[in-house]
Write a structure and sequence with these properties.
The complex is a heterodimer of chains A (104) and B (327). Chain A is 38% helix and 31% strand. Chain A is α+β, with helices and mostly antiparallel strands. A 5-stranded antiparallel beta sheet of chain A has the order 2-1-5-4-3, sandwiched between helices. In chain A, a hairpin with a 4-residue loop joins strand 1 and strand 2. The radius of gyration of chain A is 13 Å and the shape is globular. In chain A, 40% of the residues are buried. Chain B is of the alpha/beta class and 327 residues long. Helix content of chain B is 45%, strand content 9%. The longest helix of chain B has 19 residues. The chains are: A alpha+beta (104), B alpha/beta (327). Chains A and B meet through strand 2 and helix 2 of A and strand 6 of B.
């Protein structure tokens, strides 16, 4: 929960949702449809973690998706999944850097 | 499991237009007719199906009942078994609701099997058994007689006679879809010489079995190259609460959830869909314009309260009420 508050304060993070790998929904900041975001983030995390395993990446830590206008960063921490929506998409690298910094 | 092809297989229900065009379904989901080779996660139903199919061998003489309450899926299961066994034997299917002509069960069965009507019951039964014997020779497997919608009191007397004839003639198998307690009703009506009618109850799906069941149907009927359809865990909790695991009710609500999502051009089934989908009428058969519209804000407090109850039962924290504004 503390993570979600912290992440939502990073500049250009428009909204953030906390869920789990099964797509369960636990908390949201500035997001109207947290249930759907958590379901999609859980689905992506599970599938890409499997793909990452096959590619020998080791445990999956982060998924970044970028569109023309907005981007999304999905963080995996244990069984928790945090999806942060980034607006504009061009701010994705800065948000990723801020997230890396916050992990120490 | 073999993925479904992009064109519907012959003999299988084709996906309704809205589900085909918006979501990429090939076959109709939750229809009761499962594409061959597909394994839907229907828990106890699969084991009942396998057990019954094993009992109905080449030689006739087996009489059994699959029983359950309204919407338990016992009737659908019987038709599914009959459909699967129909490739290798004659299936005579009879709905046993009230007959406006006042004919007896045996007379109606003879008519369904194309056996000329006899004035006396005894002669009618002999003619029916003789026809079933011929069909046994022709197909190499004993025919299956399926009686659907049996109400124990109304049909007991005629059914006792048919169960006895199944056993002594061994010319066919008898499968009955009826209410729980049917076997007892037949015993009270005089079926006692060769033992009671074996009754196999269809239990409701547990909350844990509903997710695999719904996903199994979607996977079995969606085109192999279609993008996935997601289900939120909260939607499954609501579905379990609304249906209490009764398979026919799950089929109705789950298909309506898909119809609602298809009309919105969404591939995610959430609590809005699980709460709003009708458990009475199949929306795929109606006009898409008359479907409910999602409100601007979801869920309203009364729905969130219900979700809390579901979540508490599953050992989860309450549903997040209002999206925090952050700072």
């Amino acid at each position: 929960m503390a993570d979600l508050t912290h992440i939502s304060r990073i500049p250009n993070v428009a909204s953030a949702v906390l869920g789990d790998l099964s797509g369960g929904f636990f908390d949201a900041v500035r997001e109207a449809d947290g249930e759907a975001v958590a379901a999609v983030a859980g689905f992506l995390s599970t599938n890409l973690a499997e793909a990452g395993d096959r590619l020998g990446l080791g445990p999956l830590g982060r998924i970044s998706l970028s569109g023309e206008r907005r981007a999304t960063v999905i963080l995996l921490r244990g069984g928790s999944v945090v999806a942060a929506s980034v607006d504009p998409a061009a701010a994705l690298t800065a948000v990723e850097r801020a997230l890396d910094g916050s992990r120490g | 499991m073999e993925p479904p092809p992009s064109a519907a297989a012959p003999g299988l229900p084709v996906a309704p237009d809205l589900l085909r065009e918006a979501l990429g379904f090939v076959h109709r989901p939750f229809s009761g007719v499962v594409p061959p080779g597909a394994a839907i996660g229907d828990g106890p139903v699969s084991s009942i199906r396998a057990r019954v199919a094993g009992l109905l061998g080449e030689d006739g003489g087996t009489a059994l009942a699959i029983t359950g309450g309204a919407e338990s899926g016992h009737s659908t299961l019987c038709r599914r078994i009959a459909n699967e066994l129909g490739a290798q034997r004659l299936v005579v299917e009879l709905g046993t609701g009230r007959d406006p002509g006042g004919r007896t069960l045996l007379q109606r069965l003879c008519a369904a099997a194309g056996v000329p009507e006899e004035p006396a019951e005894e002669a009618g039964l002999d003619a029916f058994i003789a026809r079933m014997g011929e069909e046994r020779q022709r197909w190499g497997h004993a025919s299956l007689v399926l009686l659907d919608g049996v109400v124990s009191h109304a049909a007991a007397a005629g059914l006792v006679r048919l169960v006895e004839a199944t056993r002594w003639s061994r010319a066919f198998h008898l499968l009955v879809a009826g209410p729980a307690g049917l076997s007892g009703a037949l015993q009270r009506a005089g079926l006692d010489e060769a033992g009671p009618l074996e009754e196999i109850p269809v239990p409701p799906l547990s909350a844990e079995q509903i997710g695999p069941y719904v996903r199994g149907w979607i996977a079995a009927t969606l085109a192999s190259r279609a993008p996935p359809i997601l289900l939120s865990p909260d939607a499954l909790l609501l579905l379990a609460l609304r249906t209490q695991g009764a398979i026919e009710r799950i089929d109705c609500v789950a298909e309506n959830m898909l119809v609602l999502a298809a009309a919105e051009k969404r591939r995610m089934l959430g609590t809005w869909h699980a709460w709003t989908a009708s458990d009475q009428a199949r929306w795929a058969d109606g006009e898409p314009g008359s479907l409910p519209r999602r409100p601007a804000s979801w869920p309203p407090p009364e729905v969130a309260d219900v979700l809390d109850v579901c979540r508490r039962g599953a050992g989860l924290p309450p549903f997040p009420r209002v999206s925090r504004t952050g700072s």
